[in-house]
Amino acid sequence: MADGSRQDYLPSHHELSPFGFRRAHKKPRPFVVTQAKSRTTVSVLSLCRPCFSTRTCGPPPRITIRNKMIISIPKNIAGLALTAGLAAFGLASIANAQLITLTTGNFTIHANGYSSSTLPPATSALGGLPSSIGGVEDTWGVFQVNSIDTLTPSLTNVFTENKGTEYWGVFYNSVDQSTTPLGGGNVSFTAKGLKLDIYRLSVNDTNDAAFNAVANQGTSGRTSISGFNGITNAGSLVLSSQLADGTDMTSFFTAPNHTSAFGSLTVTTNNMFDVGMGNLSNLSFSLAGLTTDVPADWTVKFGGPIDGNVSLSPVPEPSAFAAMGAALLIGIIALRRRQQGNPVGVLPA
After folding, report:
1. 207 torsion bin: left (phi>0), alpha (psi -120 to 50), beta (else)
2. What is residue 123's predicted lDDT score, i.e. its pLDDT?
3. DSSP letter string over 213-231?
4. Helix or strand or coil: residue 97?
5. Which of 44, 57, 73, 316 has the most CB atoms lying inside 10 A of its own CB?
6. How far apart are alpha carbons 136 and 174 in whole angstroms?
7. Does the predicted TM-score (pTM) go above 0.90?
8. SS3 content of the chain, % helix, strand, coil (to 5)
9. What is the pLDDT of residues 171-217, one digit of tens each?
């Protein structure tokens, strides 16, 4: 332009608005940057008065910049930034309210369930599917979380089943790598590939009736290697884990009808526990089972603890509060500096 200013045309923000504002300004409106010797005025079209006030639609709000310093910011823009920051904090609080809070130290998940496993004299597990590590599964099954306790500084229950929220899970993909007879009908096994997922469900499960009804589907309830009807299609996935790198699951069959299994799981997805600024350790399981009085299609009913630890993190997670903190800070600074008539920021060179 003749006066040295630059005028760039952008589509109307009403046409692009993700918030469902009324269609308006059918013709493109300009985004204008007018430069003088020491003053730059920016007309911002992405935020206009009709969207954030009751005044008649007029010129877009202006951010005034002098010597690369932001001199003034309209209240509606600063207010929007502050609102966005507060909303982010609110959403985070709602999300955290759904998590199980764990204090620093040890905790124990108490669980029980059913598995289909390759036990002598069988040579395969009923319902086993091809594993991602090769071969067909030798162990898979379903389970429920009965309770969760923190152990530090004292024993404290943080979750109990049958209160409207349930945590049910599936384990799968495990293939035996060795089978060693120990004499007397006893056998030891090592396995790789195990994965374990936990889902959160909203269900009334009085006396475990709902879980048992799901488990009693047996192999017919299995929809995929990681899917089971009534669990994976009925809840939200909140925790995923797999055998820790370089480790095996070790299990034993002790004649005539006892089993046990041990292993360490690395958590790959955690939307189940609020550990604050801490780190969630691997989960170590130690489960005991029986091969008698088991529902159809299952070979073992088991139960036992899954232990973990929350340790202090020396460096806070970088993404923990970045988004909501930045939005809130910008809004607060903009409002305070505007009221004081001081610059609120510096533009980069």
Report:
1. left
2. 85
3. HHHTTGGGGEEETTEETTT
4. helix
5. 73
6. 8
7. no
8. 20, 45, 40
9. 999 999 999 999 999 999 999 999 999 999 999 999 999 999 999 99
